[in-house]
């Protein structure tokens, strides 16, 4: 059994923001692989889907970004999920818009959602899919930038990146982290 977590913030005011790219990808996955519906479970929006013969658990924590670990920890503990079978999808300021990077483990890189998950799980040994959102322009803080909506001019790049992330996630489910890294890292 695999679990895929998309990070973001709940609420309409955050729906289309850069920080919610994980939610956007998960919504597309739930639409493609499942029935498109979530239930409220594990302090989040929860769904189950099948990809081939694999059962996949999907979760969008509703705890706000900085407390994402609470929801992820609840899911992992309930299903006894091996951390190598957990994929977390989230925004990354250090990657240009449209770029993806899969990692099998690593530090939080300053991302508070990942920091919360590492703290809750007691480990940084879980795969993650970083979604490039680019750095804020000079003079703008990272905190305000991630809570802004994507620019209209970025719509095509955003759509392509979400599509590529869905493909990378499907490959991760089917063949594992290394196969997905080899095919998708560095692609834009």
Automatic annotation (TrEMBL):
GO terms for biological process: protein quality control for misfolded or incompletely synthesized proteins; rescue of stalled ribosome. The record marks 9 as: Discriminates between blocked and unblocked aminoacyl-tRNA. One of its GO terms (molecular function) is peptidyl-tRNA hydrolase activity. GO terms for cellular component: cytoplasm. TRNA binds at residues 14, 64, 66, 112. Keywords: Cytoplasm, Hydrolase, RNA-binding, tRNA-binding. The active site is at 19 (proton acceptor). Its EC number is 3.1.1.29. It catalyses: an N-acyl-L-alpha-aminoacyl-tRNA + H2O = an N-acyl-L-amino acid + a tRNA + H(+). It is found in: Cytoplasm. Its main location: cytoplasm. It comes from the Bacteria. Pfam families: Pept_tRNA_hydro. The record marks 91 as: Stabilizes the basic form of H active site to accept a proton. Signal peptide: none annotated. Monomer. Catalyzes the release of premature peptidyl moieties from peptidyl-tRNA molecules trapped in stalled 50S ribosomal subunits, and thus maintains levels of free tRNAs and 50S ribosomes. Hydrolyzes ribosome-free peptidyl-tRNAs (with 1 or more amino acids incorporated), which drop off the ribosome during protein synthesis, or as a result of ribosome stalling. NCBIfam families: pth. Belongs to the PTH family. This is Peptidyl-tRNA hydrolase. It comes from Heliorestis acidaminivorans. The lineage of its organism: Bacteria, Bacillati, Bacillota, Clostridia, Eubacteriales. The gene is pth.
